Structure formats: C-alpha cells, structure tokens
Amino acid sequence: MFIIFAFLLCSYYVRRINYTVLEPTAVLEYPQKREFIFSQQEEFNKFWEEYCKVFNSKGEKLPPPEIDFSKNMVIIVFSGEKPTSGYKIEIEKVEEHKNSIKVFVKEYPLKKDRIVMPVITYPYVIFKIKKVKKPIEFIYLKS
Questions:
Q1: Phi, psi of 125 (to 5 degrees)
Q2: Exposed (0-12), middle (13-18) or buried (19+): which is 87, by Cβ within 10 Å?
Q3: How far is CA 117 from the centre of its chain?
C-alpha cells in the first residue's frame, strides 16, 4: 500500500516556484506573440540591443536589467503588436512539475469602456527565476 501511495505522490508532484517580475525600464518591441528564455548574459544582451527602443539623453540605449546568470534565468513573454494602449499581460504563477516547469500566463484584452491611446504597443512581461534544467512550458489562461 505504501508503494502505491509513494508512486501517486511522485506522479502528482507540483511545487510553486518563486519568480520576480522585473519592472520595465525600457520599451521592448517584438511584434509577434512569443516567449523567450535567456540563461546567458550574452544572448540576453543581444536580444536587448535589437529590441530595446528607449534611449537616454546621450542617445544610448538603456541597459538591460542586471541579472546574475550564474544563478538565474530571464523569461520574456510578448503578446504581440496591439493597435492601441490598454492591453496587459502578466504571469499568474510558475510551477515545477515532475518533468517540466509550467509558466501560467494571463493576457487581458482591451476593455470596451476603457480610454486608450491610439498608439501601437507591444505588451510584455519580463521576469526571472532560479536556473532550471527542466523544459519550460507556457500555459495561456483565459481572462
């Protein structure tokens, strides 16, 4: 009986993973709905250089957030190009399962009664988690 209980316990293993949302210091413009996972500084810097669209008073691109990539990884989830302001995307939770890490993403559509700016936007959320070796899956929740 104990063996069956232990097997069931192992097969239903789920543990919440702490994550930290990084406040956007810049505008990142990526036009498609997509997820990016960065585990190395070089690849993160290259992405930032290409898609960061904010400059300081000297005409230099704002630097990416400082991340200790020896311990952490960065994940960015884009919801794609939108025709106005007022769209939102956020992380609901991150869980470790037996064979994967699951990131639960919630996208908020434009509310009909909301006042918006007629400007193209690229909603995204950027966050960091401890480095993991398991594959990462993205689950999109309905809002």
A1: -130, 135
A2: buried
A3: 24
Dig out the tokens for 4 from the structure: 């069956």
**Tens digits of residue pLDDT in 77-121:** 999 999 999 999 999 999 999 999 999 999 998 888 889 999 999
Closest CA to 32 of 123, 139, 109, 119: 123
Q: Is the pLDDT score of 7 beyond 70?
A: no
Give the pLDDT confidence score for residue 10 in this predicted structure: 55
Helix, strand, coil percent content, the chain, rounded in steps of 5 = 15, 40, 45
CA distances from 44 to 1, 15, 56, 126 (A): 49, 27, 20, 12
CB 75 within 8 A of CB 37: yes
Q: Residue 50: its pLDDT value, please? A: 93
Sketch the domain layout of the chain as residue ranges. Answer: 14-141
Residue 77: alpha-carbon gap to chain centroid = 4
Owner of token pair 């702490």: 18
